[in-house]
Amino acid sequence: MIDAIQPAFGGTSAGAADGSAAAESSDFETFLKMLTVQMQNQDPLNPVESTDYAVQLATFSGVEQQVRTNQLLESLTSGLLSTGAGEMVSWIGKEARAPVPVQFDGAPVPIFTETDPAAESAELIVSDSYGREVSRQNLPLGEDVHYWAGTNDAGSPLPNDQYRIEVVSYLGDEEIARSPAQTYDRITEIRTAASGPIAVFASGETMPVEQVTALREAAG
Predict the structure, then answer these.
(1) Has residue 77 got a pLDDT over 80?
(2) What is the rounded distance in angstroms from the CA atom of residue 113 to the CA atom of residue 141?
(3) Overall CATH class of domain 101-181
(4) Predicted pLDDT of residue 56
(5) For the residues 31-58, what does the mean pLDDT come to?
(6) Residue 8: CB atoms within 10 Å
(7) Can you tell me the distance from the alpha carbon of 40 to that of 181, in angstroms, rounded to the nearest whole number?
(8) All residues at 6 or more sequence positions from 9 whose CB lies less than 8 Å from its CB, including other chains
């Protein structure tokens, strides 16, 4: 009689392929009915062992759980692709240039700056992880890459920390623009959001992927 139950398992697998919750529920009800009939019509002189029933139930339960897991994975994949995040999975582990904090560990850090085209002068303003200004220095006009040495206004080394660096443009004595400097940081995760994919960086910073301006392989 145990062999008579096997088609119910096959039906469930087909239901998984279709991804139909209604078919899955129908298969489960059919299995229970067949199991009930089996119990009612078993040979009283040679009854089926209770362990055999337990095996059948456990097997069907495992198949049903796999069906639901597959449906969940399909739903997650569909969600990633619909938001565009699925296309950016390959970004994970790479270094992206974006307006993220600078992680200073004693070595000069490359930063990318751009001043306002109308500016007559500009400054580089550095704040520590507590938001305290620790350095302010003159910055050449235009777009360029600099190696920030991690020193304060007196030229003394700053402690290892995360620093936010801003580019401030002036026309005369008036501030006309302020924007974050950019640097490279490793992407650890791509998240979905109603507004679009979000990049998560090793520094803990999160931002829309549109703010990433360059991408490269992580240094070995």
Answers:
(1) no
(2) 9
(3) mainly beta
(4) 65
(5) 66
(6) 21
(7) 77
(8) 31, 59, 60, 63
Distances (CA, A) of 167 to 176, 190, 203: 11, 28, 20
pLDDT at 147: 93
More confident residue, 213 or 31: 213
- On whether the CB atoms of residues 158 and 127 are closer than 8 A, the answer is no
Q: How far apart are the first and last CA of the chain?
A: 61
For 15-48, give one letter per residue: b (16+ CB within 10 A) or e: bbeeeeeebbeebbeebeebbeebeeeeeeeeee
Number of neighbouring beta carbons within 10 Å of residue 195:
9
Task: Give the three-class secondary structure for 99.
Answer: coil
Query: Interior CA angle at 22 toward 17 and 28, to 5°?
Result: 85
Domains of the chain, by residue range, sit at 2-83, 86-95+184-216, 101-181
Q: How far, in whole angstroms, is CA 51 from its chain's centroid?
A: 45
Assessment of whether the complete model's pTM goes beyond 0.90? no
Q: What phi, psi does 195 have (nearest 5°)?
A: -85, -10
Beta pairing, strands 174-180 & 109-114? unpaired
Instruction: Give the pLDDT band of residue 179 (cuts 50, 70, 90).
Output: very high
For residue 7, pLDDT over 60 is answered with no
